Model the fold of this input.
Amino acid sequence: MLLVPCPYCGPRPEVEFRCGGEAHIARPADPDALDDAAWAEYLFARTSPKGLHAERWLHAHGCGRWFNALRNTVSDAFITTYEMGQPRPDIAGDR
Amino acid sequence: MAQDFRLPGRGRIDRKKPIAFTFNGRTVGGYEGDTLASALLASGIRLMGRSFKYHRPRGVLTHGADEPNALFQVDRGTGRADPNNRATVVEAVAGLTVSSQNHWPSLEHDIGQVNDLVAPVLTAGFYYKTFMWPRSFWDKFYEPAIRAAAGLGVAPDAPDADRYVHRNTHCDVLVVGAGPAGLAAALAASEAGKRVILADEQAEMGGSLLADLTSTIDGKPASAFVAEALKTLAGRANVTLLSRTTAFGYYNHNHVVLTERVTDHLAAPDPKLPRERLWQVRAKEVVLATGAHERPLGFADNDRPGIMLADSVRTYVNRYAVAPGRRIVFATNGASAYRAAADAKAVGLDVTLVDLRPEAEIGPERALLSGIELLAGHTVVGSTGGKAVTGLIVAPLSGGSVGARRTLACDCVGMSGGWTPAVHLFSQSRGKLTFRTEIDAFVPGTSVQAERSAGACKGTYDLASILAEGWAAGADAAGAPSTRAFAATPATPTGFKAARVLPTDADPKNVRAFLDFQNDVTAKDIGLAVREGFESVEHVKRYTTNSMATDQGKTSNMAALGLVSEILAKDIPQVGTTTFRPPYTPVTFGAIVGTARGETFDPIRTAPVHEWAVKQGAKFENVSLWRRAWYFPKPGEDMHAAVARECRAVRESVGLLDASTLGKIEVVGPDAAEFMNRMYPNGWTKLEPGKCRYGLMLKEDGFIFDDGIVARMAPDRFHVTTSTGGAPRVMAHMEDYLQTEWPDLDVFLTSITEEWGVIAVQGPRAREVIAPFVTGIDLSPQAFPQMTVREGEILGVPTRLMRVSFTGELGFEINVPADFTQAVWEALFGYGQRFGITPYGTEAMHVLRAERGFIIVGQETDGTVTPDDVGLSGMVSKAKKDFVGKRSLARPDMARADRKQLVGLLSADGRTVLEEGAQIVADTRQALPMTMLGHVTSSYLSPTLNHPIALAVVSGGRARMGETLFVTTPAGFTAVKVVAPVFLDPEGKRVEGLVEGGVHA
Done:
């Protein structure tokens, strides 16, 4: 079970959280301006990288807040967490 | 039975505490401190089981967790029996009933032994090759026959009578294994005050030192070192000592799971104690000191009872004071067996040692063999005996050729093929293994988590080095690196020469050298698998079943691996190793389940009127975690009769439903209407306070996600309801958008499901029933029309009173604070008696709404259904520029004419109640596979209409009105007519309560 570092509560076991998938996929401001392919890209296309991955996490059974996290999908190490709306930190490589 | 093989004056058994248990009906004596295996050996019982496939007689091979042969059914009383217990780890307890497994009619005379005679055909892949053909034989013949013959032991059939608990804990340093390395690590780690847990799977801590009577550590006997170390650790408040505790799983972020056996070793345990505790440990640092497993040697008939591992002989002699035989031959390719031979000789047993290595390669261990015959440069080519070994057949090796055979008479063989470090937990932690050729073993290489290994599990076999390594690991884990030298004498002999299958002069076709004793896999099987093209070790493992038994190949994995590499002429690192997965040793289901069984299996949510419904004799159904009243049978009524009566009451007079389980969310704030506009396809800006609207919620993919009535309480306040099961996910869905997409909106979401109880009063008499109790609200139809909400009081309790209907009748949903719900309910029920008021359950609710054609999300919808598919395109605002799901509804697929659309179905025969989920076709004579047009989503016998009704989704359904289609039933196809999905009151007049007399569709 992962130990997830909630930026508001501290490290807590994974069962308290829900992972919301890839971060930084903003809902288009004007969905009608997108053609079907671009809309499908927004809805379904995800990068699923091997290595560092920016993800959305919700501390569902804790403070109830969403935050972003950089997690290494190979080692499961959490590199850092940051607030919703903040840009992805410029961190390269593994821990 | 007399303990003829018990040695005097030694061992760690308590001779003042004799015990007795029964084995296959015979009484066997022993002492506290014995395992089942040591007690049986003390009484001269060597035959302890039959092998899985060939039913060969087997005895104990090991003295610990790696045991593949001696597996027992252990019975501690009703509900306390389980199979496949290793005799080498189960402590001998007074009163146990123990039996061997996998034989019929008895252990001594087993008919299954015939398999051994036909062994030449029962080779690797036998089942795959043989039972392929004919296909039709599989289900009726092959599979039942194989299943009857397969399996070890008997699964318990009574509910588990024991209690199991879970514990969660944190520590700075978790040390796994309390042998020399683990003890030293725990001493070092705890010195600086760090919180340390030391866990060991055995009854007594000390590991290999418990069987070491010759070594001294810092001038003291090994046993004194153990005693002092444990005394020191026990005296430190920051140390938790957990014996009988197996660390079986190493998961992410240093989450290690242990199982502690609390009562199995007690003859009369305190009933307050759980049988086992599952410890979920989150450790900052972990020290693995899990030791090593000895390997058997591969030679013909190496599996006869009495043939065991050399270090097991030593352990039985020294720790348990048991002679596993009187004449013992040790066979080895390394130095460690010399210590075992010397210790056996020291208690007066007749000992011979056979070493594969030539004289010149034997090191200082030679000095241990005073008075012991040594046959150096000898191979083992077989054994003699039946239910017990009677001799070991050896032959000299010279220049690669095998010389003249010679049989060494014996009643016990101690074999040693070297050691395999127990890297299981390290490997589970995702650490990368590295191969060390000189010890022919994989050892921990690169760590991934905060752990380090020490001692034999790292390939370190010399006692002084093990202790120093343990200390350094413990200090390092505590964040205070330090070293300490330990003086251990005599020096541990560690010479070793790797050997796969021992050289033999026999025809390889006739040699059965067992590698995996439990699954009866021989070296020949491995060879066959490789010849047949299985070159990956993972494939060889699955094809031959090597290492796939309950022991998970602790004694066999490396042997098979080495053999594959030898046959393929590849280095072992290139061949690689199979994956180690939890659990390290079998774990009881009870420990995993813990208290999550029976009434505490899952949380149960009950609605405010639950107790009343229980007293009324209601039947309940589970709806998500809720228990909801399903129907209220009167004496003599079945479900059908009760539901029909409840439905009629609602249609003709009045009924009461506890609707409190509906999800309720309050959406509050200056931007509440804007938020609602974005979340729902409907428009909310123009909905005046005091009015209600049906809200259909979509996900971004355009499909229906949930639905419910929304009441606008104030310009900045919406009372949103959701389906019973959907409440948490709707709340999460809203919260997600609010926090991550539109944090600029000034809105708060509050779950109010538990705050408000809801009583649905439905039927033509509904208004009359509530009228006497309501104050502050004008109930007249003009002042309080359908789909409005009013705030006032009922019985003096604040209420949000909604005039809404899920039945098609005049109706109200009375929201009252949860604690007052039952009082209001009882008042309405009492007063309503004059109208024949009837409580109704969820089943009647389903029937009533289906008659009126209202959908239920999750029944008519399945995540691929749009508003238009269920005829609710009118709910979708054309005016709004955007809302969640809007863009997806514009996809061409969403407008296809052949989409599955909601329709009604009427059985042509007027009798058949269709099955929900049944498939629908247009032509029953079409070729297979048929084109399926859709399926039945809801189906009931309508008590109001007195004929079956069904809702269905059918491709292009709205264009098929009046068509005849066919629906699958268990008796074949039945014809149905497609009709509009509203069976009653299509004009919706009944909600005005004006319908008099009978009911007409």
Remarks:
- The mean pLDDT of chain A is 93.
